[in-house]
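Following up on my earlier thread - several people asked me to post the actual chain instead of describing it. Fair enough. Here it is, all 372 residues.
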Amino acid sequence: MEIRPGTPCDRASLAEATAAGDLVVRVPGSLDAMVRERLADELLHHPATICAHGFALGAATRRAVDRLVANPGFRFSALQTGWIGFGPTGAAQDGWEPIATFGRGYQPRAANFRAIEGFYEGHVRGECGLGRQIAQYATQAELYGADGFDSEFAADEIVIGTFNRLRSTRSILVGSSAGELTRDGRAVQASQQGRQAFMGLPGFIFHVFDRSKLDDLNNQAENFVVYDVSEQAATALRAHGGLEFYNDRNREVWSLARSIQARKPRRFFERLLFERDPSLRAQQSAATLQTLARIDALLDDPFYRGFQVYVHRQGVKPVGFHVARLLDRNPRTPFRVELALHNLHTSLYDRYIAYRLRQCTGLSQQAVQDAK
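Reply from S.P.:
Thanks for posting it. Predicted structure:
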């Protein structure tokens, strides 16, 4: 028997991994059934297999996010009566029913996939925490397909609302159905594994100093899911041991930006540091240009351009965009980037593998329950 896992987490696609000779197992035909069963379990939980699953997970995340971004009816919070605001036709029209007051909790009214489509096509208002929740659920919906998502998850496992509300439910994100959660906030583990280990992971960008240093409370944090990671960004993350290196760099960028003494029109740092608007730069003093050169050198690290995240309602942007944008919104505090608790490689992975194995053997979940 020979197992050659290779490094699929470093590849851009399953085809590239296959061409590179990754994910190869040679099994003699003489193995008995018990040994084969043990081997199958070992291979299904091998780190290389979980990395290979990252290709499917990343593709599902991108399909889900692309549909959310394409819906102009999915808006950011404005004046509304609850934490989540459905359109004039109400939550039922978009496939949801309330489980808490003031828009703090909803679950699918009937079919789970129909509820997700309510965010693909309907009119809903909410802040970036809701955007992250829906992106996470929609990723599972895209991974399983409509029928699978409806049959494999109970409605009370697909709960949206405040995170405090979710923790007291059966939500598969942070509730009692979440199971084993991975704690890798500074991405030390994911960075060592490689780019595919980041696909679909939830996270947040949040202020370092206390609330007294916030000028825009609506932008005190940004919840995200990872959309894609370039080869260069993954290499940089591995070399620097995760996100903490970049959180230190974010603080250095913030400190340098604070020293710029200039008239700051709307979107000043976004245009100056991310878009590198030549006309705006031409208006700056010699001293400011020297500071900009130092900031540019810091932000030229491939992490800032190649680590792509989805934030509602900003869409899909690299982390560097958010660093610059938050300098405009809350200039008196630096911001950190961290991953959130997740179960994509533990409980949700095990559920998906079990589902696919039942498909292979022709057994539905109901047939398995009937047999017990």
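The chain has 16 helices and 13 strands. That should answer part of your original question.
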